[in-house]
Amino acid sequence: MNWATSIKTKLTTKPISISFNKLNLSQLDAIVSIELDSSSYPWSRTQLKESIRNPNNLCYSATYEGDIIGYLIVMVTGKTADILNIGINPDNQRKGYGGLLMSYLYKELKNRLIEELFLEVRESNQSAISFYLNQGFKEISIRKNYYKSNSNELSSSENGIIMRLEI
Questions:
Q1: How does pLDDT run across 7-41, given as a tens digit for each residue?
Q2: Of 120, 153, 158, 166, which one is the catalytic site residue?
Q3: CA distance 124 to 152
């Protein structure tokens, strides 16, 4: 399935075309590259590969001018879904592409009669938290000491914030 849209950027009035497609293993190298470039705690190649292969997951890529600039991996269970991973190439962040990818996801979830979307984010990831709040997510819970922090101390950990959005 291919879904394309045009947006006007803030810097120019030139229309930009972006398309969204089902993610497949032939795109794995591009996804791994984005993951390594955009995440302080990147998933491994194996984790990404297994997530794409999982039939319970919805996996989409965002393509701009022939290049994959982002991806989204979501696990569906019954009438709920969980965002497992999302990444936008750092050169394309803060340009609205993440929001467009999420809008595409919302349409897909509505078509599947999904009622709620959940995610979990590190408490220190303020840019992601801000993005999700702007998308309409609400904080519903905190998982104390859930994530291993970016420290060499084994006892050092970080809270996870659980967020929810009604579809």
A1: 444 554 455 689 999 999 999 999 999 999 999 88
A2: 120
A3: 17
* 19 within 8 A of 2, measured Cβ to Cβ: yes
Give 144's pLDDT tier (boundaries 50, 70, 90): very high
Instruction: Tell me if residue 60 is catalytic.
Output: no
Out of 132, 146, 147, 166, the active site residue is 132
Q: Is the pTM of this model over 0.70?
A: yes
Question: pLDDT by residue (tens digit) across 52-73?
Answer: 999 999 999 999 988 999 999 9
Q: Quick one: which of 124, 130, 117 has its CA closest to 84?
A: 117
Q: Please say whether the dihedral angle defined by the alpha carbons of residues 47, 60, 104 and 100, taken in this order, is positive or negative.
A: positive
For residue 141, the SS3 value is: strand
Task: Find residue 163's DSSP bridge partners.
Answer: 119, 139
Question: What residues contact residue 63 under an 8 Å CB cut-off, 6+ apart?
Answer: 18, 19, 20, 21, 69
